Amino acid sequence: MTKKIGFRLNIAGKPYNEKIKLLFIVNEILIQRNFMSLSDQELTLLKSSLESRFVPHLPPLIDQRKSASEQITKNCSRALSAFVIKHIADLSDKDACKHVTDDFDDKGIDAIYYQASSQTLYLIQSKLKLNEEFSLEEANAFCQGVRKIISQNFDDFNSHIQNRSSEIEQDVDECSHIQLVIAYTGKQISVSAMQAIREMLIDTSHAEERFVENIMEYDGDKLLSVLRQSNSYPRVDATLWLECHRAVESGYTSYFGLVPLKNLVELHNKHGKALYVKNIRTFLGRKTDVNSAIQKTLREQPDHFWYLNNGITALCENIEPKSQRVRDGKKQIKIQGLSIINGAQTIASSATAANEAVDIRDAKVLITLIKSPSESDFGKSVTKARNHQNPVSLFNFSALDEEQERLRRDIANLNIDYLYKDGVSDQSGNSISINEAVYALSCLQQDPRFVVWLKKEPATILDPETENYRSIFPETLTAYRLINAVIVYRKIQNSLNPIIRSTNGAERLCYKHGNLALAYVLMKRLSYEIDMPSVINTEALENKLSYPLDQARNSLWAMVTPIVPPSNAAGPGPLALFKNQTYTIRVMKSTMIDNFSLLSDLVIPIKERMQTATQPYPIDLFNYLSAKAPQIRFDQ
Fold it and tell me: HSE-up of 180 (CA within 13 Å, CB side)?
């Protein structure tokens, strides 16, 4: 989305003529603004969250005679106002819904909320429409409703407002500020709409001086940001007593010393995953050798624990002594934004032991606290360096990629857990791992070499610092594309299993080792459904995929047969073939041409001749073949 031009109109105490001049300046600014509305997928993601979190708590619609589809649409729109109130006031989803007044006849006022602590009355209008501007007609309705509210005239309002008339009267009397709020998912507030609202604000006829001068806007960018923030882990603040403490003030402020292990276990039990938000892994389980050894030491030698443990490292947004006093050789340290980046196994294993009645009161552990700005490159470099001391794979370091956390938050709106850190899953059954995502998204790439790399050198894809990784996890990757890609990939692999078991010899090995090549071909035919702003229906996929899968595997076997030698003859077997880039590209090209019914396509020879000596594969040809893949559509 393009960046907005922000402005604030300071009109308090200014003469009327000067107010008019300022209004013309605002109009000039508004004309220059260029917005983009939410995309289909972003809007659908927002609607999904609104429907699951807020709609169940909304006051019932007044007119129950409306059709079911009208009521669903209206309730989702009403929920947007509750979503905004929740963000403004930090209320629960249920409590935010109590302030919604939106209905089929609301006179432009969709929600009313009074915040006593700031003496601010919030008057809200929200529009959940794709690609449409917030129009002059909507602005006029909003202004009319605002005028009626401040004059305490409730006659023409719906029962949601009339039933609260005494409460609203008191709020209008007591408030010191009146804040107008507009939430919209379309392109922008139109110039004429903004002008109408500004004219109301500077109008002296209503003798209202409590209007806050700047309208609070919740545009697509801000709504999406709030949506993602709602699924973030809460910040962990803590106070720890450090024994044998030392401070390093030069460079990055740091403290280190001994801390009672039970204090860290208490933080683990209270905050869970939030305590490890910047770690590359979560708890790997009690049965690993290291974690078993940790628990053994706690059972047998808790007082020797810190001698036998590598210690804990944590990044902190802020660290400072709670006081300058030292009590019994210990110093109290106040920490904001605490995140354990090394030592998750130590703390989680200790928590498991404590839950099994192991006495850990005498156990201490060395802790290093490093002050680092949130999401800083320095913090990431510390995390990476500290974790190189233990066995980790390149896969683990993808946890440092901010895009992975962004995807986790987006996917959480669809009630699916995205597990991008190594560790024990929640066993919820409704989850997707980053490993699955890597394979599924690689098969969506037009570059056929991804299939070979996954078979031969997966590290070339899993390293977050490479172009290959960025190709499958770009900033534009949406939650729906990732989820749908994994659903399709899973279905292809699960459907192949009985076929592999029912065949023999080279054909069986062809399907077993060519499974990614088949997924590559078939997923090109499902790209339309994968990119739809909805989660793929697995039953529809089951019905539509069976015959195309048989077609694709027959095409693949037909293209592999001339290359794979008969028994005891020299030549590559299926495993060697699909680890060889030259063979695999040749087979996949032929399979796509055959399976997509392009044998007589006259453009293909032209595209083949376009390959240059510097190209690692025929790029133009594979781009063309991917574009020509006949789409498997669920609505046909």
Answer: 23
For residue 519, give every residue at least 6 positions away whose Cβ sits within 8 Å of its Cβ, in sequence order, or none.
439, 440, 443, 489, 492, 493
| DSSP H or E run through 378 | helix 377-387
> Helix, strand, or coil here: 381?
helix
Calpha distance 612→616 (Å, rounded): 9
How is the chain split among helix, strand and coil, in percent rounded to 5?
A: 50, 15, 35
Residue type, 280: I
Burial label, 140 (beta-carbon count in 10 A; 0-12, 13-18, 19+):
middle
Amino acid at 260: P
Here the tokens at position 169 are 């009267």
Q: Which of 347, 369, 342 is nearest to 261 (CA)?
A: 347
Q: Whole-number mean pLDDT of the chain?
A: 86
Per-residue pLDDT at 106: 63
> Rounded to an integer, what distance in angstroms lies between the CA atom of residue 349 and that of residue 358?
11
Residue 546 makes CB contacts below 8 A (sequence gap 6+) with 495
State how beta strands 364-371 and 111-115 pair: unpaired
Q: Which amino acid is at 130?
A: L
Helix ranges (H only) for 120-190 are 136-150, 159-162, 165-174
> How far apart (Å, rounded) are the C-alpha atoms in residues 66 and 72?
10
Give Cα 489 distance to the centre of its chain.
Answer: 21
Write out pLDDT tens, residues 588-621.
999 999 999 999 999 999 999 999 999 999 999 9
Contact 505, 426 (CB under 8 A): no
pLDDT > 70 in the chain, percent: 87
- Kindly report, residue by residue over 167-197, the tens digit of the pLDDT: 999 999 999 999 999 999 988 899 999 999 9
- Collapse the DSSP code of 9 into the 3-class scheme (helix H, G, I; strand E, B; otherwise coil) and give the result: coil
Rg (CA), the chain: 30
Asked if the model's pLDDT at residue 147 lies above 70, the reply is yes
Residues 6+ apart with CB under 8 A from 378: 252, 372
| Tokens, residue 299 | 């059972």
Q: What is the DSSP string of 570-636?
A: SS--HHHHHT-HHHHHHHHHHHHHHHTT-TT-THHHHHHHT--TT-SS-HHHHHHHHHTPPP--TT-
Neighbours of 62 (CB within 10 A): 14
State CA 546 to chain mean position distance: 32
Q: State the pairing for strand pair 120-127/111-115.
A: antiparallel
What does the pLDDT look like over 496-533, one tens digit per residue?
999 999 999 999 999 999 999 999 999 999 999 999 99
Alpha-carbon torsion, ordered 355, 357, 363, 367, to 10 deg: 0
Considering the entire predicted model, what is its pTM? 0.79
